[in-house]
Amino acid sequence: MDAVFAGAVVVVFASAVAVVFGRVSNRTLRALSALLGSAAVAAWVAFALKPNRELAVAATGLTVCAAAELGALALQRLVRRTRDVEGQLTEAEARLDELVAKETEAHIAEIERFCGDQGVDYQLFDTSMPLDYALFAFLSRRQFLTRVR
Fold first, then answer.
1. Within 10 A of 33 (CB to CB), how many other CB atoms are there?
2. Domains held by the chain: number
3. Which of 3, 8, 27, 67 is 20 to 30 A from residue 42's alpha carbon, by CA?
4. Along the chain (149 residues), what's the average pLDDT of each consecutive run of 10 residues?
5. 3-class SS shares of the chain: helix, strand, coil, % to 5
6. Whether the Cβ atoms of residue 14 and residue 36 lie closer than 8 Å to each other
7. Are 67 and 126 in the same domain?
């Protein structure tokens, strides 16, 4: 009975690893849960027929393993749901980035039109450019445009 208990422990840990890596089906987990549950029931029946400490420990361990295997089923649902949510978040981020870019472009165009209508010089700068370079570029462009007008 100790060997059955040891095998059950290996099955439970292998199932948990397989669930995390998405390498086991729901059907397989259910079958393993049923197998471990049956082994636990058999161990308790053996204990009832011939009570001794070794059988009690093995029966208790098999019962815990059967419960842990059922926990692997719940873990599988959680892992799948987490992956689904991560996919949805990735899609939502992409849509949000696209919307922000579109709205930013529309806002910049509106500011450019407004400044043009008011006769105000407007220059869009990359904020990674040092301020002195940006001002120099702006003033140079303005000086050039003043000469051309």
1. 22
2. 2
3. 27
4. 94 96 96 97 96 96 97 96 96 98 96 92 87 88 76
5. 85, 0, 15
6. no
7. no
Structural domain boundaries enclosing 144: 121-149
pLDDT value of position 149: 61
Residues 96 and 143 in one domain: no
Tokens of 67: 């419960």
| CA distances (Å), origin 52, targets 5, 45, 58, 107 | 16, 12, 10, 80
Same structural domain, 48 and 108: yes
Both 22 and 36 in one domain: the answer is yes
Q: Which structure tokens are listed for 64? A: 């815990």
Output the six-digit token pair for 30. Answer: 């259910």
Rounded to two decimals, the pTM is 0.66
Same domain, 28 and 95: yes
Same domain flag for 131 and 107: no
User: Could you tell me which residues come within 8 angstroms of residue 9 by beta carbon, excluding any fewer than 6 positions away?
Assistant: 61, 65
Q: Are 13 and 51 within one domain? A: yes
